[in-house]
Every structure is written in structure tokens, then in C-alpha cells.
Design goal:
The complex is a heterotrimer of chains A (526), B (287) and C (42). Helix content of chain A is 68%, strand content 0%. By secondary structure, chain A is an all-alpha fold. The longest helix of chain A is centred in the first third of the chain and has 36 residues. Chain B has a five-stranded mixed β-sheet with strand order 3-2-1-5-8. In chain B, strands 4-10-9-6-7 form a five-stranded mixed β-sheet. Classes of the chains: A mainly alpha (526), B alpha+beta (287), C mainly alpha (42). Chain B: InterPro entries: CcO_II (IPR045187), CcO_II-like_C (IPR002429), Copper_CuA (IPR001505), Cupredoxin (IPR008972), Cyt_c_oxidase_su2 (IPR014222), Cyt_c_oxidase_su2_TM_dom (IPR011759), Cyt_c_oxidase_su2_TM_sf (IPR036257).
């Protein structure tokens, strides 16, 4: 693969000019870029809602917003962060990196790829429109449990169709990723030679296909319950509100892993690079991801231990949930073993990866505590749960995305980002995220329920601390935007093709910035 | 009032400072952990919680210790050469098997506690609890006593949006954790709650009594407790149930048997006076 | 893009399209299946 060939192709098949380039693009790199920008915008929209929540909770009393609006913020913050920020960011990274990592010229189905992205803004237009319809945005929590969610006003059909559209987008994206990985690999790129990021995404894509239809089914049943007289979830008509929770969490728990398995992949790329040592126990890492994915289908009811289940059910879901700690532990230990006796340097991506390792593990511990049914009877729906899932989603998934952005940004733009501002962003984010979420463990244990707009005065101190942390975290993200734009505009100088001293893998063999078309002739993998 | 606010602000600043110092957890002794509570369930849960917590701390010391040692020793700036090994079957088997054994060790006491908690037989009295948007209804089964229990008046006036607020929340005793009619129960009696709801799902949670249970329209869930010490125990609805989810507290008052009998008499008299305003049985409403 | 794909890539894409249809069909079946399963039970 010589640079000359690439330049030649670029002359004839470079990007179109102006808006047409982005609207009609079938290029995996362009689509990846679109996904990533979209995700960044949604991160700020959802983040703004988090700021409203923390501002309301900074002291007792209803100080800023109506309780109903507060509930809308809680609901939309979650929906936007999950479906708008975290998932599209991972799909964007998959689009950019998977073809380059497996030595394919593009995704297998480039036109469908265009659609997968462009229906996302449509879905979010539907979702965000709900703020302007009678009755306001959905306010029943992102879990949309009936009967409460059936009290939603005109926003309800918009919510349901919005979720359908996002689901279709995810399924198309997932199908594309699977068939690309299964069919488009370069000669010699055996399945067990693929980078772990590719493995993480392959398994994630299967999870998406298995569970997005389940969510679509669940919300459609809600729709018919509300408007067409069915009674799937209405006890008065012979239905069962708890049935919805079972269906929802059959989607919801694999969904949690959809947001973390690609993150595992990213961390498995970054730590070996900066430890200058091969990933420890490659095949164990692959099997661990597969085991976690399998277990994710048989643990869903741990989200609903308090709905009144038979003891046998409680025990089953407790044991399977605890079992997830085994493969997750294997991953953590293998990452530590990769660092062990390496020669580490601590550039921004590595700092984020290490923060992930520490803080995700803390989230894992609280997860293990939550698995213990009797204890969960106390923790359930308290701030302890809020602290737990924010620890796995923010310093977990979001930090992994940030690590990935810093890691591959030089490859995407051709320039190095500012290490000083990257590290400033890192330290501010890491400290403030702990100030935000660590005290929430205490709040939950002391008895503060989640999703309340106002609280008893004994919870004041920790809420105050938590709000301050949240504001600092929110502001720190502006540095992230600055670093990205600064880097696109030339950063602190040109990046080399390998970028990092310890980098490995096909994506580092192409020039920086990666040309518009790469690997039009498949590389040979030894 | 102003002084109170100012000192509050100073306290926040000091607390924030303390929080950032290691070892400052001592400053927060109160309200950082689960309460041990006043029932056998809550103290079983507390012990289990602490057991799991310390196991996690021990694992954390090992894992985080290894990470920190590695971060300090195995850095390029110290001139180390990276090792070449990248797998070791024996080690991998060990760190798959050992966590599994630890989990088994955790699962046994957990399952035992769970089976004790889920034993609803041989109760001494039962109360039907119905969740409404946004208050609770209690019906003492077989006692002809039933009443609604709502957020008390002071809290209600203090929780209004700033422009309509008549009292500062800080001036209300037990802000958001006080009701007009408390649930009175005798000590040392196994009290069974039969939980249901009239409109949407609610959840009944008093941390010091141990655990919570959802109140689901059309279904009846069970929850029990046996309080060992007289006292007032406070909790809240724990399942998002709409606009005023944060404003439907639960207050349980545990008293000696004689006092409880007297209270029942008093409530019966009160109910008789209100005969005209026919109290619809919660079960009928649910149906 | 597809016009200048070499034979190997063309072959790969053809295989990929086939599997995409299979997976898509499974997803749709799943979606419909949930309805049938639940509407026959309730």
C-alpha cells in the first residue's frame, strides 16, 4: 500500500464540495465524522439538562423549576445521553476505525451507512420537539414504566416514533458493522487476529440486533395501550404493568453492555500502546467479552428486585448477576497485567484509560453490592444507584470515548492536539466527576431516593458538593471542544503516520491524516 | 434567618474543603452509611452490606495497589524495558477461579438473608397500604381503622416554588419527611404490609425498617417488619410516580402495645365521627 | 467506491449483502415475534 496510489485515487474520487459531501456521503470516514460531531452536540444538550438538575438540587426547596419540568429534565437527560451521545459516539468510532483496522476499503454497505446516520437527526428532532407540545416532554423517566408513562401528553407518540427511528438506525448500523467484520477483512486477518476494539464492536452489534427490536416492541405496545384500547400493561384489562418492566429490561440490560463493550475495546487498544507491551491474554479478553454479552441476557430482573418476585427468581437473578463479576474481573486483571512491567508514558489517552480503569472498577464494586438482593432492597431506586451507573457510564463509557478521541485525533486530522490542554481537560474532568458522583453513594445509603426534585435538609451538604462538581465538569468540557477545534486547525504540529511510539495495527500504517480512501487494495496481514 | 443562611454557606465551604482532604470521611459520620435500623431485616441487611463492602475494599486494595505500583515503577521515564510476555495460563486460571470462590462466599449469606426476609408467614397484624398520586392510604385490616396520610402542611407550604413560598424549608422540622397522619404500629409485633396502588406504581421505603417494595396497581405485594425500639421512622416513595413523587413521605411511629390499643380506639372514634364522609375501602378503589 | 472495487471486494460485498438480509430478517422476525408472543398470552 503506497501513498502514491492513494493520492492518485484522491484526485478522482475526493470528497464532493459543500453540503453535498455530508448529505450524500457513502464514505465511512465522513460518516464517522458526522456521528462524532452529532454525539458531541448531544453531549452538550444532555449536559445542559444535567446542569438544570444539579442547579435545582443545589439546596433544599424548589428554587428554579417546577417538579414536572424537573421530571422532564431527568427523563430527557437520560434518553439524550444514552441514545444521542454515547451510542452514536461508539458508532462513529466504529465507522472510522473498523474498516481501517481490518484492512477493508470501506464499510460493506456504504449507502445504508449513510441512512443509518441521517435518520438519527430525524429521531432526535422528534424527541426534542416534545418540549413544545401540550403536556411537555416525557417525564416518566427514560424507563417509561406504565402506567405513569401513559399519563404523558401529546409527547407520547413522538417519543415512541423517535425511539423507533433511533432503533432502526442502530439496527442498520449494527448489521453493517457485523457484515463488514465478517466479510471485508484483509487476507490473513483471522478472527483471532482482529484488534479487541473490533471484537468488542462485533459482539456489541449482535447485542443491538437482539435487543433493539425488543425495545421497539415494548414501546409499540405502550402506544397501542394508550391509543388503541389494548391492555398489555393495564391490570384492569387483564394485563400486567410489571410485564413491561421485564420486556424493557430484557432490552435494557444488554443496552448497558452495548455502552460498555466498545469501551472495553478502546481501553484494550490504548493501554498496550502506551505500556509498549502486547495486550495480556488476548484470547481471554475476547472470551470475557463474549461471556459478558451472553450473561447480559439472563440478568435483566436485577433492575426490578423490588417488584415482588418469587424467591427462586430473586436467587436466580442474584447469582447470574454476581457471575458477571468473573469475566469483568478477568478484563480488569488483564489490563493491569498489560501495564505490569511495561514502559508506560502518560499522554492524554493513557490518562483517560487509567482513569477508566480506576473509576470503572469502583462502579463495578457498587454493581456487585447492588447484585446482593437483600442489600438491593435498601439501595434500589436510591442515589446509590445513581452513583453506581454514573460511575460506569461517565468515567466508564464517556471517558473511554474521550480517550479514543485523543488517541485517534492525530490520525483523523493529521495534526497533534495540545497535550497541555488535553491534560488540563483530563484532570479537571476526573476530579470534578468524583466530586459529583462519589457523595451520591452517601446520599443513597443515607436514604435519599432518586428522581426527586427536592429533599430533606439532612441531604443538603452532599447535594451541594455534588452540584459544584457537576458544574465544574460541565464547564471543563468546553476545553474538550477547544482542543478538538484547535487540533483540526493545525494543533501543535504535524502528526507522524504512527503517531504513538508504541502504536500497532493497520490503522497506523496509513498516512496521517488518513486519506479519503484507504486499503483499496487489501493489505497482506502476516 | 440571614445568619442561619450565612453560616450554612460557610459550612458548605468548610465541608467542601474537608471532602477534598483524605480521611475527611470522619467529618461525615452521620448520614454516610446505611442505618443499622430497628428491625431484624434491616440489621441483617446492614451486616450483609458491610460484609460485601469490606470484601470490595480488600479486592480494591489489591487491584488498585497493583495499578499504582505499576504506574510508579513501570514507567518509561525510569528507563525500564518493556517485558515481552503476554499471557500466562496458570495466572489467568487463578484470577478466574479465585473471584468465583469469593462470589460463592458472598452468595451464601446473601441467599440465607434473602430467604429469611421472604418469609411472610405467622404475622401478628396486617395493614393494607395503597399508593395514590401523591399520598398514601392505610387500612388496618380487621381493626376498622383507615386513613389517608399526606405531606404535612408546613412542608407543603415550604416546598412551593420560590415565588409562592411562605416558609423557608430550613425552618420546617423534618422538611418533606413529616405527614399529617402517621402509621402507628406496636413494637415487637410482626407487621405485614399488603401493598397496592390506585393509579401508577409507587414504592414504600423506610430505610430504618429495612428495604422497600413496589406498590403496583392491580397487584398486591407483601413487606413485613418487626420493630424492636419505640420511635419515629421516616421514609419516602421510592418509585417515580409523577409530578409530586418527591412529596409523599411515609412516617411510621412504633409504640408500646397499650399505647397502640389506645391509638386504635381514638382512630375508631374519629372514623365514626366522619361516618358521613364514607371512607371507601382502598381495595375497592383499587378495583 | 463500488465502481472501482476489485473483484475480491466485489465478492466480499455480495456476501455481506446476503448476510445483512439474513440478519435483518431475524431482527424483523424478533420484533413481530414479541407481539405475537405477548398478545397471545394477554
Amino acid at each position: 500500500m503506497s501513498t502514491a496510489t492513494d493520492t492518485h485515487h484522491d484526485e478522482h474520487h475526493g470528497p464532493a464540495k459543500g453540503m453535498r459531501r455530508w448529505l450524500f456521503t457513502t464514505n465511512h470516514k465522513d460518516i464517522g465524522t458526522l456521528y462524532l460531531w452529532f454525539s458531541l452536540i448531544m453531549f452538550f444538550v444532555g449536559g445542559a439538562m444535567a446542569m438544570v438538575i444539579r442547579a435545582e438540587l443545589i439546596q433544599p426547596g424548589m428554587n428554579l423549576v417546577d417538579p414536572m419540568f424537573y421530571n422532564q429534565m431527568v427523563t430527557m437527560h437520560a434518553l439524550i445521553m444514552i441514545f444521542g451521545a454515547v451510542m452514536p459516539a461508539f458508532v462513529g468510532l466504529a465507522n472510522w476505525m473498523i474498516p481501517m483496522m481490518v484492512g477493508a476499503p470501506d464499510m460493506a454497505l456504504p449507502r445504508m451507512n449513510n441512512w443509518s446516520f441521517w435518520i438519527l437527526p430525524i429521531g432526535f428532532t422528534l424527541l426534542l420537539m416534545t418540549f413544545f407540545v401540550p403536556g411537555g416532554a416525557p417525564a416518566a423517566g427514560w424507563t417509561i414504566y406504565p402506567p405513569l408513562s401513559l399519563q404523558t401528553g401529546d409527547a407520547f407518540p413522538l417519543l415512541v416514533f423517535g425511539i423507533h427511528v433511533l432503533g432502526i438506525s442502530s439496527i442498520m448500523g449494527a448489521i453493517n458493522i457485523i457484515v463488514t467484520i465478517m466479510n471485508m477483512r484483509a487476507p490473513g486477518m483471522g478472527l483471532l487476529k482482529m484488534p479487541i476494539f473490533v471484537w468488542g464492536w462485533l459482539i456489541t452489534a449482535y447485542l443491538l440486533i437482539a435487543v433493539m427490536p425488543v425495545l421497539a416492541g415494548a414501546v409499540t405496545m405502550l402506544l397501542t395501550d394508550k391509543y388503541f384500547g389494548t391492555a398489555f400493561f393495564d391490570a384492569a384489562g387483564g394485563g400486567d404493568p410489571v410485564l413491561f418492566q421485564h420486556i424493557f429490561w430484557f432490552f435494557g440490560h444488554p443496552e448497558v453492555y452495548i455502552m460498555i463493550l466498545p469501551a472495553f475495546g478502546i481501553i484494550s487498544e490504548i493501554i498496550p500502546t502506551f505500556a509498549r507491551k502486547k495486550l495480556f491474554g488476548y484470547s481471554a479478553m475476547v472470551y470475557a467479552i463474549a461471556a459478558i454479552a451472553f450473561l447480559s441476557f439472563i440478568v435483566w430482573a436485577h433492575h426490578m428486585f423490588t417488584v415482588g418476585m418469587p424467591v427462586a427468581g430473586l436467587l436466580f437473578f442474584m447469582f447470574t448477576t454476581m457471575l458477571i463479576a468473573v469475566p469483568t474481573g478477568v478484563k480488569i486483571f488483564n489490563w493491569v497485567a498489560t501495564m505490569w512491567r511495561g514502559a508506560m508514558t502518560f499522554e492524554t489517552p493513557m490518562l483517560y484509560a487509567l482513569a477508566f480503569l480506576f473509576l470503572f472498577t469502583i462502579g463495578g464494586f457498587s454493581g456487585l453490592m447492588l447484585a446482593i438482593v437483600p442489600a438491593d432492597f435498601q439501595y434500589h431506586d436510591s442515589y446509590f444507584v445513581v452513583a453506581h451507573f454514573h460511575y460506569v457510564l461517565v468515567p466508564g463509557a464517556v471517558f473511554a470515548i474521550m480517550a479514543a478521541v485523543y488517541y485517534w485525533l492525530p490520525k483523523w486530522t493529521g495534526y497533534m492536539y495540545s497535550e497541555f490542554w488535553g491534560k488540563t481537560h483530563f484532570w479537571l474532568s476526573t476530579i470534578s466527576i468524583n466530586v459529583t458522583f462519589f457523595p451520591q453513594h452517601f446520599l443513597g445509603l443515607a436514604g435519599m431516593p432518586r428522581r426527586i426534585p427536592d429533599y430533606a435538609v439532612q441531604f443538603t451538604d452532599f447535594n451541594f458538593i455534588s452540584s459544584i462538581g457537576a458544574f465544574v465538569f460541565g464547564l471543563s468540557q468546553l476545553i474538550f471542544v477547544y482542543v478538538i477545534i484547535h487540533c483540526i486547525r493545525g494543533g501543535v504540529g504535524r502528526a507522524t503516520d504512527r503517531v504513538w511510539e508504541g502504536s500497532h495495527g493497520l490503522e497506523w500504517t496509513v498516512p496521517s491524516p488518513a486519506p479519503y480512501h484507504t486499503f483499496e487494495t487489501a493489505p497482506e496481514v502476516k | 434567618m440571614f445568619k442561619a443562611k450565612l453560616s450554612g454557606a460557610i459550612r458548605h465551604t468548610v465541608l467542601l474543603g474537608l471532602f477534598l482532604l483524605p480521611g475527611s470521611a470522619l467529618a461525615f459520620r452521620e448520614g454516610i452509611n446505611l442505618p443499622r435500623g430497628v428491625t431484624s431485616i434491616s440489621s441483617d441487611i446492614y451486616d450483609l452490606h458491610m460484609l460485601i463492602f469490606w470484601i470490595c475494599v480488600a479486592i480494591g486494595v489489591i487491584v488498585f495497589g497493583a495499578m499504582i505500583i505499576s504506574i510508579f515503577l513501570h514507567r518509561k521515564s525510569r528507563g525500564v524495558e518493556p517485558a515481552k510476555w503476554h499471557h500466562n495460563t496458570a495466572v489467568e486460571v487463578v484470577w478466574t477461579a479465585v473471584p468465583f470462590l469469593i462470589l460463592v462466599g458472598m452468595a451464601i449469606p446473601s441467599a440465607r438473608a434473602l430467604i429469611d426476609i421472604e418469609d411472610y408467614r405467622d404475622y401478628d397484624m396486617s395493614i393494607q397500604v395503597t399508593g395514590y398520586q401523591w399520598f398514601w392510604h392505610y387500612e388496618y385490616r380487621g381493626e376498622d381503622v383507615s386513613f389517608y396520610s399526606r405531606l404535612d402542611d408546613d412542608s407543603n407550604r415550604a416546598r412551593q416554588l420560590r415565588a409562592h413560598r411562605e416558609i423557608d424549608p430550613l425552618d420546617v422540622d423534618n422538611y418533606l419527611l413529616e405527614v399529617d397522619n402517621r402509621v402507628v404500629v406496636p413494637v415487637d409485633q410482626k407487621v405485614l404490609l399488603l401493598l397496592t396502588a390506585n393509579d401508577v406504581i409507587h414504592a414504600w421505603w423506610v430505610p430504618e425498617l429495612g428495604g422497600k417494595k413496589d406498590a403496583i396497581p392491580g397487584f398486591v405485594n407483601e413487606l413485613w417488619f418487626e420493630i424492636s425500639e419505640p420511635g419515629v421512622y421516616r421514609g419516602q416513595c421510592a418509585e417515580l410516580c409523577g409530578r409530586d413523587h418527591g412529596f409523599m413521605p411515609i412516617v411510621v411511629e412504633a409504640v408500646e402495645q397499650e399505647e397502640y390499643e389506645a391509638w386504635l380506639e381514638e382512630m375508631r372514634d374519629r372514623n365514626a365521627e366522619n361516618e358521613d364522609a364514607t371512607q371507601v375501602s382502598a381495595i375497592d378503589v383499587a378495583r | 467506491m463500488s465502481e472501482q472495487d476489485d473483484d475480491r471486494t466485489k465478492q466480499n460485498r455480495r456476501r455481506a449483502r446476503f448476510w445483512a438480509l439474513v440478519i435483518g430478517a431475524v431482527a424483523v422476525t424478533f420484533y413481530v415475534g414479541i407481539f405475537l408472543l405477548i398478545s397471545t398470552r394477554y
